[in-house]
Amino acid sequence: MKNKILVSEAKNEALNSYQDAIKITGQQFINEKMILPQYIDACIDREKDYPTGLELKNGIGIAIPHGNQKFVKESGISFLRLKQPVNFGLMSDATKQVSCKFVFNLALFEGEQQLNMLRQLMGLFRDEKFIDFISKSDLNSIQKFLTQKLVF
């Protein structure tokens, strides 16, 4: 079975927090029957203690939330591009926040997949062309690109 990468864009009408962003990415997984509903709450709870926001060199923020693998039925990634950024806690310093425009929610069935995926994503995040691409490209192009680049 091929792992799925889901891609969406939030218009931000009712998106005011990282919790809202996680709910949107989680709902994509639920729509595809990839997770149990408890996964969303697990992501939100985990974010409080272990924030996942990253600030890149160019000042752009990206969050990589994930929840307990026991709630994952099928591995996948739910990517969300936001019109207006929302604050996530900073991964390197939980007392600080970073304004994130992109969210990569990782619903991965095996722990080893998670480390491997984080390595792959960090490699992409270092490439300013990639950040420009996910900022400006249409969602279908982003989905195709991520499906080709991310192996899990």
Features of the shown structure:
152 residues, five-stranded mixed sheet, 5 helices, alpha/beta, globular
Mean pLDDT: 92
Radius of gyration based on Cα positions? 14 Å
Q: Low-confidence parts, pLDDT < 50 over ≥5 residues?
A: none
Beta-strand percent range: 25-35%
Helix percentage = 40-55%
Biggest sheet layout: 5 strands, mixed
Content-based structural category: alpha/beta
Order of helices and strands: EHHEEEEHHH
Strand order of the largest sheet: 1-4-5-3-2
Q: Could you give the count of β-strands?
A: 5
User: Count of DSSP helices?
Assistant: 5
Q: What general form does the structure show? A: globular
CA-to-CA gap between the ends? 11 Å
Blueprint of the fold:
Blueprint lengths: L3 E7 L7 H14 L6 H12 L3 E3 L5 E3 L12 E15 L2 E15 L3 H15 L2 H9 L2 H11 L3
Parallel strand pairs: 1-4, 3-5
Antiparallel strand pairs: 2-3, 4-5
In short:
With 152 residues, this protein is an alpha/beta fold. The chain is 40% helix and 28% strand. It has helices at residues 18-31, 38-49, 111-125, 128-136, 139-149; strands at 4-10, 53-55, 61-63, 76-90, 93-107.
What this model shows, in words?
It is a single chain. The protein is α/β, with parallel strands linked by helices. 40% of the residues lie in helices and 28% in strands. The protein has a five-stranded mixed beta sheet with strand order 1-4-5-3-2, sandwiched between helices. Helix 1 runs antiparallel to helix 2. The termini are close together.
